[in-house]
């Protein structure tokens, strides 16, 4: 048990905006034309359920689904990770992809405005990724 805890704390210390999984997720969102992409670094917030949230939006349900599917595909392809949980494939208004330390939220614009995750987690360090070029 102690070894698992130590390994996890070492992993968390290395996870940042330049981590491979985060770059892969952002590139996958950009490939499918996701908009208003931000990452929230939650590591300093004790109540947070993950180290990072990556939030983006799309203007139609088909695009929300396409972005979610592409994130899952690219992370599996480039990082060798499958999501712990993938929710929302049916409704296509909000897809949540949980990689334990990183949680991706892809939402319709109206859902994002209503739930306003950035305001809810306003103490998190925020980084805008909308203007960054796609990196593979």
General description of the model:
This protein is an alpha+beta fold. It has a single domain (2-128), classed as Beta Polymerase, domain 2 (2-Layer Sandwich), CATH 3.30.460. The chain has 5 helices and 6 strands. It has helices at 2-14, 20-31, 61-79, 109-115, 117-120; strands at residues 35-41, 52-58, 85-87, 94-98, 102-108, 125-128. Strands 3-4-5-2-1-6 form a 6-stranded mixed β-sheet. A hairpin with a 6-residue loop joins strand 3 and strand 4 (94-98). It is globular, with a radius of gyration of 14 Å. The termini are far apart.
In short:
The protein is of the alpha+beta class and 136 residues long.
What percent of residues are in strands?
15-25%
User: If you average the pLDDT, what whole number results?
Assistant: 86
Which spans of ≥5 residues are poorly predicted at pLDDT below 50?
1-12
Intertermini distance: 36 Å
Structural class: alpha+beta
How large, in whole angstroms, is the Cα Rg? 14 Å
Quickly name the level 1 CATH class. Alpha Beta
Biggest beta sheet summary: 6 strands, mixed
In helices, the fraction of residues equals: 40-55%
Sequence of strands across the biggest β-sheet:
3-4-5-2-1-6
Bulk shape: globular
The name of the CATH topology is Beta Polymerase, domain 2
Number of strands: 6
How many helices in DSSP terms?
5
- State the CATH architecture: 2-Layer Sandwich
């Amino acid at each position: 048990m102690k070894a698992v805890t130590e390994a996890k704390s070492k992993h968390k210390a290395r996870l940042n905006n330049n981590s491979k999984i985060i770059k892969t997720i952002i590139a996958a969102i950009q490939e499918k034309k996701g908009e208003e992409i931000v990452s929230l670094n939650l590591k300093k917030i004790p109540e947070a359920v993950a180290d990072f949230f990556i939030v983006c939006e799309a203007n139609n349900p088909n695009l929300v689904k396409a972005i979610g599917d592409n994130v899952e595909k690219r992370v599996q392809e480039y990082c060798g990770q499958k999501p712990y949980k993938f929710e929302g494939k049916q409704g296509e208004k909000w897809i949540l992809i949980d990689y334990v330390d990183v949680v991706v939220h892809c939402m319709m614009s109206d859902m994002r405005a209503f739930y306003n995750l950035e305001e809810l987690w306003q103490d998190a360090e925020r980084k805008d990724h909308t203007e960054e070029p796609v990196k593979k």
